[in-house]
Every structure is written in structure tokens, then in C-alpha cells.
Amino acid sequence: MRRLLKVFGVVSLLLAGIGLAHAADPIKIGSFLTVTGPASFLGDPELKTLQMYIEDLNAKGGVNGRKIELIHYDTGGNTKDAVNFVKRLIKSDNVDVLIGGTTTGDTMAVIPNVEKEGIPFISLAGAVEIIEPVKKWVFKVPHTDRMAAAKILGDIRKRGLSKVALITGDGGFDKSGRTQVLELAPNYGITLVADESYGNKDTDMTTQLTKIRSSGAEAIINFGLGQAPAIVTKNVKQLGITLPLYQSHGVASQTFIDLAGAAAEGVRLPAAALVVAEQLPNTDPQKPVLLAYKNKYEAKYGPVSTFGGHAYDGLMITVAAIQRAGGTDKAKVRDEIEKTSGFIGTAGVFNMSPEDHMGLNLDAFKLVEIHNGTWKIIE
Q1: Do 167 and 108 fall within a single domain?
Q2: Averaged pLDDT score across all residues of the chain
Q3: How confident is the model at residue 158 (pLDDT cuts 50, 70, 90)?
């Protein structure tokens, strides 16, 4: 009998040890970002942000007493790689949640697997089609291309202009943005007099812009990301075109200004308030959050971008959801992400719901103009 009790005691201790070990298992966050390639100026600050804040959280004890482990793969903007990496993150790495999808193309490519496997996924890409229609396991934190189109078209109308030329790239974000502009333009009394396109790897768009110059357009909208919009901006200047030029939120970083140089002067675009944080009134509830992130990031890496801010928002929404869920049960974490309410992030104040897996309104967007190599808030 004594021997049986001894054996039972040993087994109990082993089971207790296993339970403790399991309780201390790291929270695994899987990430797939475009850190290299044409969209690297989006993915690079996203990865740096995740690494910086996860290191910070772990130094403070982690989440619910568990450290966070970041498992990351660089897609280079290749959608096939994105799909393979997400399969690996889910099946082999056994991650608890996914944060990533720098580009719309990468994000849309992995959604079928995410939905099939049932894993919470917060995208860092812009297209509205990511969350409309609502997909059970998919959320996003950047403003949508539809919101960007609305902000741009609204400003064009305020300037008393009604004829617009559109030029877009061949990526998923670019094409989705084009669709939004075409659909919304009539609502603002705006006519599209030109609709040109280019390849995102093209190095000269003067042919398309020459057509736009003779189209009777009163303003130009370029929807794209990567280096191509900077080339469009330079070409506009080189051709002596003086029409107002609008870019999308896909270029809201200092990298775009550096690439476009003096040609960027006067360009307008919608962007997260992060790029004009200091210009916000002190009564704005976002201002302390924005300045804290901006100062922390710039002290370590240099000029901040809205894209790194999206990674911050995605991570903090995830962490808060895990805390509320009391662990990493995927269904519970998904439910808590969906209940996100009043979260003040870099993109705005998030209020998600079963009908809205982003939770931002148009007021979260600021219209900015590039002035003397930096951002100036217009609205």
C-alpha cells in the first residue's frame, strides 16, 4: 500500500509538473510580412514594431504570466510563399494567432486556409475586400481603400473640381482601390476622364501620364504602393503637369517622400494620424498613444511610418483579447477580438463587432499634404 501511495505521489508530481510547464508555454504569434522586395518599406517597420513590443511585453512578464514567441517568415511579396508560410505556421509551428499579410495580395491568398483551420488572423493590409463580406476568423487594422477613396474624392469636390484621371498599379491593393474610386466617384459628382494602369515593377509611367495630360482632367489620383507611386510622382513633375496629385494611404511613410524627392511637394493623401501626431490638439485621445509609439520607434529605428503603427495596433488588440479570454483558446480569442471596443490605437479608436471586423470610421483618417519634405495636416 505504501508503495502504491509513493507511486501515486510521483505520478501526481509529474502531472503537476506537466501542468505547470504547459501553463508556462509561450504564446505563439505567427507573422508573415513583406520585409524584402518592392513593398519592404511597409513590412520592415511592421516586423521591427512586433519585435520591439514583444520584447517589451516579455520583459514585463509576458501575457497572463506567459512569454510571447514571435515566429516570422518573409514573403518578399510572393503570394505563393505567403500561403506556404501560413500553412507552416498553423500546422508545424502551431501558432495561436496570426498577425501579418503586409499586402492585400498576401492576405487574400491565405484567407481560405485561415478560415478552414479556424485561427484568429489580424491583417495589416488595406483592401476592403479583406473584411467585406465579414469572414469569421479574419480582422484588419488599417483603414480601407474605400475610406481612402472617399477621403480623396471628398477633398477634390471641396476644391470645386469634377474631372479626375485615375492611374493604378497591378497589385491587389491597387486594383481594389481602383474599384472603390470608380464606384464612389459618381456619389461626389466626379467624372473619371482617364483610367490608366502600370505594372508595379515599371520604371517609367510617362506614356500613361501623357495621355492623362490631354484628357481634360483637373486632378490625378494614383492608387498604389511600393516604389511605383514615387515614380508616378516624379514623372508628373518631369512632364510639367501641374494638376493636384493625390496618392493613397499606401505611401504614408517617409520612404515615399525620400524616393519622390522635391516632386512630392504638394501631394495630398489620406493617412493615419501617426504621421501628424504632434499637430493634433492636446485634447485628442489618440495623441498620447501616437507620441508614445512614435518616440519609442524613432529612438530605436528612425523615422516612423503608419505601417509599423498597424503592427502595433494588431499586436495590442491581440494581447488584450488573450488577456480577456484567459488563454489562447482560438475560438475564445477570436470572440474577444471581435468584441474590441474603445481601443485607442495608431489608426484610430477601434470598435469592432460581428458586422465590422475593422472597427474604424472615416474620422480616423487624416488628410495630409507633403510640405517641405514632411507632413502637414489639412483635415
Answers
A1: no
A2: 93
A3: very high
Please give the residue that has the higher pLDDT: either 211 or 3: 211
User: Residue 350: phi, psi to the nearest 5?
Assistant: -90, 130
Residues in the chain: 379
Q: Which domain holds residue 248?
A: 146-279+365-377
DSSP class per residue in 72-112: EEE-TT-HHHHHHHHHHHHHTS--SEEEE-SSHHHHHHHHH
List of E strands, 180-336: 191-197, 219-223, 245-247, 268-272
160 and 250 both lie in a single domain:
yes
CA distance 123 to 34: 12
Report the percentage of the chain scoring pLDDT > 70: 94
Question: 26 preceded by cis ω (within 30°)?
Answer: no
The answer to whether residues 121 and 41 belong to one domain is yes
Q: Does 2 fall in a domain? A: no
As a whole number of Å, the CA-based R_g of the chain is 23
Residue 56 is placed in which grid cell? 517589451
pLDDT at residue 15 in the model: 44
The pLDDT tens digits of the residues spanning 104-114 come to: 999 999 999 99
Report d(CA 358, CA 12) in Å as an integer: 46
The tens digit of pLDDT for each residue in 319-329 reads 999 999 999 99
Q: Name the nearest CA neighbour of 68 among 117, 25, 10, 32.
A: 25
pLDDT over 70 at 32, yes or no: yes
How many structural domains compose the chain? 2
Strand order in the sheet with 97-100: 68-74, 27-33, 97-100, 121-123, 138-140
What CATH number does residue 174 fall under?
Answer: 3.40.50.2300
Residue 36 lies in a domain: yes
Residues 158 and 258 in one domain: yes
**Is the pLDDT assigned to residue 178 strictly greater than 60?**
yes
Residues 56-81, mean pLDDT to the nearest whole number: 96
CA distances from 146 to 55, 88, 132, 142, 323 (A): 35, 32, 11, 11, 32
Same-domain pairing of 267 and 313: no
Q: Which of 265, 236, 224 is nearest to 374 (CA)?
A: 265
CA distance 258 to 343: 32
